[in-house]
Write a sequence for this structure.
């Protein structure tokens, strides 16, 4: 079985690289990226990612705008929002209506909770792939 | 001051504290998230090690140094936050304008980073101590900086300088770079004349070359003004 491909997008370089390494230890194939522009470039360059872990607040283009771009390009890439914002979960509530359901996890995140969410997201993506949806 | 104006000022001061605290707590969580991931990584590496294996010892040292660095940064945030909070203990006190500005820059640097706007400063040594309201001075600076941070586009620059003018201190704030949008309707700048009046401070705003702007505040001890 091939590894789940995860893209971590966070402008805190140390956070993104450490989380990527910890996910790799747990059997994921993870790439760390430190700005939304690079993340979109990777996705548009046909790099296939199953799940994107996306920081909600980043310079220039924030997580919600990036989410919209990712979904526009490929609606079945699963996105999990990461946020240190106190009202993170409720903050993305309205966006869920717009982009469909997506998960959100508060920072500092528990690694086991995060890996569970990634696996759930992957299962959802697999269902969509099996139905022949997306790219 | 009329009661309505007083209420508005109070409301905006609370909003000012709220905005700063929101940014600050977000950054604080970032440090904690990194500490959590780094310590988690040490745990992961330990679990992967064979008994007696010390191949990762250099790696551990590097990770531990990262943890210590983040703890230092979080502790510094707490120190500045404590200073900021204690300014409200006494309405009037002897204040060092440089310290107030350094603290304020520290408090808003995250917003500047988000907007990709450079916050630069140059403070003259040995400025006269001022007897005034430190909290209100911070609020005045915020009323000037915040709309600029909202409007300046990426690559913009804000330069804050100070100089002594006898028993007064002149604070000059220059805004350089293209404006991305117009300020919102919150009205921070509208409050400024009233706030400066309470501080007994003089204020000028002038246009520089290439559409850049400069704001100058001259503040003295309140008993002398």
């Amino acid at each position: 079985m091939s590894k789940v491909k995860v893209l971590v997008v966070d402008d805190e370089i140390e956070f993104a690289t450490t989380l990527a390494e910890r996910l790799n230890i747990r059997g994921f194939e993870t790439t760390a990226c430190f700005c939304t522009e690079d993340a979109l470039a990777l996705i548009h360059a046909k790099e296939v990612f199953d799940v994107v872990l996306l920081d909600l607040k980043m310079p220039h283009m924030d997580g919600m705008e990036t989410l919209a771009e990712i979904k526009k390009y490929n609606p079945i890439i699963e996105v999990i929002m990461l946020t240190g914002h106190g009202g993170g979960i409720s903050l993305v509530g309205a966006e869920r209506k717009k982009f469909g359901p997506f998960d959100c996890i508060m920072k500092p995140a528990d690694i086991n909770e995060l890996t569970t969410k990634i696996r759930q997201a992957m299962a959802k993506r697999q269902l969509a792939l099996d139905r022949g949806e997306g790219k | 001051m009329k009661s309505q104006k007083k209420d508005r000022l109070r409301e905006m001061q609370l909003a000012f504290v709220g905005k700063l605290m929101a940014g600050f707590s977000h950054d604080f969580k970032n440090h904690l998230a990194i500490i959590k991931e780094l310590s988690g990584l040490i745990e992961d590496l330990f679990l992967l090690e064979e008994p007696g294996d010390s191949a990762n010892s250099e790696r551990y040292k590097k990770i531990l140094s990262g943890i210590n660095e983040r703890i230092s940064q979080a502790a510094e945030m707490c120190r500045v936050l404590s200073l900021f909070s204690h300014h409200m203990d006494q309405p009037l006190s002897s204040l060092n304008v440089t310290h107030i500005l350094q603290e304020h820059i520290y408090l808003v640097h995250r917003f500047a980073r988000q907007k990709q706007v450079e916050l630069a400063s140059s403070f003259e040594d040995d400025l006269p101590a001022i007897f005034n309201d430190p909290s209100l001075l911070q609020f005045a600076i915020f009323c000037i900086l915040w709309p600029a941070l909202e409007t300046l586009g990426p690559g913009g620059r804000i330069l804050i300088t100070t100089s002594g003018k006898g028993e007064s201190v002149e604070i000059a704030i220059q805004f350089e770079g293209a404006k991305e949008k117009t300020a919102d309707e919150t009205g921070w700048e509208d409050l400024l004349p009233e706030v400066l009046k309470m501080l007994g401070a003089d204020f000028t705003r002038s246009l520089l070359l290439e559409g850049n702007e400069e704001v100058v505040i001259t503040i003295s001890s309140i008993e002398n003004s």
Remarks:
- Chain B touches chain A at residues 22, 25-27, 29-30, 32-38, 40-41, 44, 48, 66, 70, 113-116, 154 (CB under 8 Å).
- The beta strands of chain B are 93-95, 118-123, 130-132, 157-165, 168-176, 202-207, 213-219.
- The mean pLDDT of chain B is 86.
